[in-house]
Amino acid sequence: MQIELKQILYVTTLLFAIIDIVGSIPVIINLNKQVGTINTNKTTVVSMCLMLGSLFAGEILLRLVGLDVSSFAIAGALVIFCVALEMILGLTIFKHDSVESVSIVPLAFPMIVGAGTMTTLISLKAECYLPNIIIGVLINIFIIYIVLKNTNRIGNLLGKTGILIMRKAFGLILLAIAIKVIRKNLGI
User: Fold this and answer.
1) Whole-number pLDDT of residue 94
2) Would you say residue 188 lies in a domain?
3) Residue 145: pLDDT above 90?
């Protein structure tokens, strides 16, 4: 196991695109208006626990239900593909139920750490060294914390057009990554 900057960058970028914390700024601003203030610390810690839990226990859970990582990677790539379509085309494919505690549900789960993030973390174990994945997760947790603490400032700085452009650009990157993962796991 070795630390590789290229893998860390790949993991960090992939998770950043899937989590799409910047693209979620308008939703976070709206949640802030509805409930007052979101508990940034709680959201960040729960998100980190969910990500690391998926990374370490996800494969064990797969084995319990008789699935292999390659099949799960393809399924995850399809989820990523759908998330990318949502971002690029402005569609709503995934529905989120609202619950009282906004800091955990729907913000930490499923908005920050949803099916796409969990699937990606499990899939990454097949192509990257574990320390590189953990570093990528921690970098994203730090970014999530900074964005949550500064949501209103970032929203004002980027403006609606800036946020829309970033969302579309990351959607396109996600689409390409989903196709790459599918091709790799099908051997195409």
Assistant:
1) 60
2) no
3) yes
